[in-house]
């Protein structure tokens, strides 16, 4: 979680490659979910994908290189924000069309099922994707075919600036999946252990052949939609939101348990800063693609 | 002592050619699966998938709900994960419900991952007017020609339906394969031996001197009929069946137009931003200024009313009129 936060902070200081989609505040969803995954599982996400990619184990240097447009990036600098992919890390990929990766994920799950391969396919999407027809279509098919698939909705309460209550009828969002006969739960997405436990339970059921499941993680986005989008929430509300920091909450819990002290935390922060600095240095030392690469990999 | 020459082809209907192609590819490659509405026990809307469920089982031949966006998305995702899905979209009019995963995901995946991933999904769909009305008759293949990362084929014969569908199921990336409703009742010779038709190669269906007519799918038969009629007037037409719309076989068309000096494009879809516009532009880029004309449907929806449908789409008489105008020939006395 600390790595995600620091990585995104470093990226936010780099406006030289356009806007970025950050996830500060939502780190527990990414880390808790990914901590329940195995190497055989596949993760697909929406565009807000830096946290999940890092949590899945994608190399920070190659990730930073991709986000800064360098040819050493995970996608050779061609995907960029919203399209990160690194299959070797079990990160099947992000897709920046809102709701666009949901049916794709079901296809990946179908491939697993058809080949009797182990592993669960997880698609992480925001409440912004919840209103898309593709979700209903895919829930229906996944339930009918009993695909080994977890629908994970990271409900950060905002679709750019539009609050979920203004545009989405189901309360809670997870109640939609009940109509398809899926195990379905809404849990606190700001508490790491809660996310991990819910993900583990859902994944256990899917691995046991129980068919797809749905989880809604209620989270809070600390920043605006993107690094160049206006923040529409009042400062007082933001202060309340940011006080619920999942990293601080987890650190406090560890300290209370006697697992983490100030020195250990400082050491962790030092290590994280060093990894982020190395990632930025790797990216900065890497070349941009050459213009003729605009025509490679088209087919 | 010499025996009869052994036949190398057999006569088959379009649906049989499609069925044979899919069955052969499913036998050859366990990664090939079939998804679509009514593709299972029903055997497809044109019975082009007859018996595939019985032979390959419900895991590989799957009926879907009416949900084109998810069908194409699931096909694209399964392709990205290593399967070779054939997704049947009953009518091309409904393909637009699935254009997001096709255009934004499947056609982009190779590029956006720097060549690390591809989505070799085949979308098989059916275009064309046959009495089914304004939202079940359209030929929208031209829309797909400008999507980098996507190939588009449209056969006019059972042999090409067979060969091109097999080729599509072996391609590296996504392919849209377009049938035409009026071709299903037609039959033709197809090779007995297993064969694959390369994508990107046009076929000269009739050689001629005065004008090149580039067309595809069902319109090929209309154009050949017009060419017969024009031959009796002394106009010699070279008829090119494009077969592949993306990529276009510009070399074959250009070489023909260089000989004839004239190009007429004929399509059942709209002429505006149509296949013909692209063909003519590419030929000009290749060989310079040419004399050309285009023929497509009237700029109107295609009604299920047979009078209005016939009024809307090109027929042999209209093709002949366009050729005469292009060649500066008087209309013959009747």
CATH superfamily of chain A, by name, is Thiamin diphosphate (ThDP)-binding fold, Pyr/PP domains
Given as residue ranges, the uncertain stretches of chain A (5+ residues, pLDDT < 50) are: none
Radius of gyration computed on alpha carbons of chain B: 20 Å
Strand segment count of chain A: 8
| Proportion of helical residues of chain A | 40-55%
Total separate domains of chain B? 2
Q: What do we call the CATH homologous superfamily of the largest domain in chain B?
A: Thiamin diphosphate (ThDP)-binding fold, Pyr/PP domains
Average pLDDT value of chain B?
96
Percentage beta strand of chain B? 15-25%
Which sequence of strands runs across the widest sheet of chain A? 2-1-3-4-8-7
Instruction: Using the alpha-carbon principal axes, give the shape of chain B.
Output: globular
- Secondary-structure element order of chain A, as H and E? HHEHHEHEHHEEEHHEHEHHH
Count of the domains of chain A: 1
């Amino acid at each position: 979680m600390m790595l995600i936060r620091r990585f995104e902070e470093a990226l936010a200081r780099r406006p030289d490659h356009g806007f970025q989609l950050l996830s500060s505040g939502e780190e527990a969803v990414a880390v808790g979910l990914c901590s329940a995954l195995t190497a055989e599982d596949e993760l697909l996400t929406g565009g807000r994908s830096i946290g999940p990619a890092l949590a899945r184990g994608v190399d920070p240097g190659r990730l930073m290189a991709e986000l800064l447009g360098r040819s050493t990036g995970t996608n050779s600098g061609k995907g960029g924000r919203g399209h990160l992919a690194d299959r070797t890390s079990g990160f099947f990929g992000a897709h920046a069309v809102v709701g666009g990766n949901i049916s794709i994920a079901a296809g990946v799950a179908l491939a697993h099922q058809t080949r009797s391969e182990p592993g669960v396919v997880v698609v992480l999407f925001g409440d912004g994707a919840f209103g898309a027809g593709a979700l209903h279509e895919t829930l229906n098919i996944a339930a009918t075919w009993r695909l080994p698939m977890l629908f994970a909705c990271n409900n950060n309460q905002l679709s750019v600036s539009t609050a979920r209550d203004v545009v989405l009828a189901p309360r809670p969002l997870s109640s939609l999946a009940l109509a398809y006969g899926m195990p379905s739960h809404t849990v606190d997405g700001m508490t790491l252990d809660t996310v991990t436990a819910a993900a583990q339970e859902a994944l256990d059921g899917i691995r046991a052949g129980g068919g797809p499941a749905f989880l809604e993680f209620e989270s809070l986005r600390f920043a605006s939609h993107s690094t160049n989008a206006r923040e529409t929430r009042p400062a007082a509300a933001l202060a309340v939101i940011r006080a619920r920091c999942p990293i601080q909450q987890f650190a406090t819990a560890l300290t209370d348990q006697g697992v983490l002290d100030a020195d250990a935390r400082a050491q962790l922060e030092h290590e994280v800063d060093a990894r982020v600095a190395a990632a930025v240095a790797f990216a900065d030392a890497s070349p941009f693609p050459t213009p003729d690469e605009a025509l490679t990999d088209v087919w | 002592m010499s025996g009869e020459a052994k036949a190398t082809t057999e006569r088959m209907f379009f649906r049989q050619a499609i069925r044979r192609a899919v069955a052969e590819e499913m036998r050859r490659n366990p990664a090939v699966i079939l998804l679509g509405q009514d593709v299972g026990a029903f055997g497809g809307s044109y019975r082009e998938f007859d018996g595939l469920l019985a032979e390959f089982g419900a895991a590989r031949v799957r009926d879907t709900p009416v949900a084109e966006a998810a069908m194409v998305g699931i096909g694209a995702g399964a392709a990205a994960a290593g399967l070779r899905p054939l997704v049947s979209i009953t009518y091309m009019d409904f393909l637009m419900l699935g254009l997001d995963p096709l255009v934004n995901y499947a056609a982009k995946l190779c590029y956006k991952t720097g060549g690390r991933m591809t989505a070799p999904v085949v979308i098989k769909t059916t275009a064309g007017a046959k009495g089914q009305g304004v939202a079940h008759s359209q030929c929208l293949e031209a829309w797909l020609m400008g999507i980098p990362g996507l190939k588009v084929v449209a056969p006019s014969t059972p042999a090409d339906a067979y060969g091109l569908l097999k080729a599509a199921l072996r391609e590296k990336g996504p392919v849209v394969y377009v049938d035409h409703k009026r071709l299903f009742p037609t039959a033709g010779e197809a090779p007995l031996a297993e064969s694959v038709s390369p994508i990107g190669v046009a076929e000269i269906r009739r050689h001629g001197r005065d004008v090149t007519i580039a067309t595809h799918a069902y319109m090929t038969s209309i154009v050949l009929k017009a060419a017969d009629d024009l031959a009796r007037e002394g106009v010699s037409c070279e008829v090119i069946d494009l077969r592949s719309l993306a990529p276009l076989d510009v070399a074959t068309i250009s070489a023909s137009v260089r000989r004839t000096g004239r190009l007429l494009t004929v399509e059942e879809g709209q002429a505006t931003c149509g296949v013909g516009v692209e063909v003519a532009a590419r030929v000009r880029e290749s060989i310079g200024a040419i004399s050309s004309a285009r023929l497509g449907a009237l700029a109107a929806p295609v009604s299920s009313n047979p009078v209005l449908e016939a009024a809307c789409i090109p027929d042999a008489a209209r093709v002949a009129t366009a050729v005469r105008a292009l060649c500066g020939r008087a209309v013959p006395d009747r």
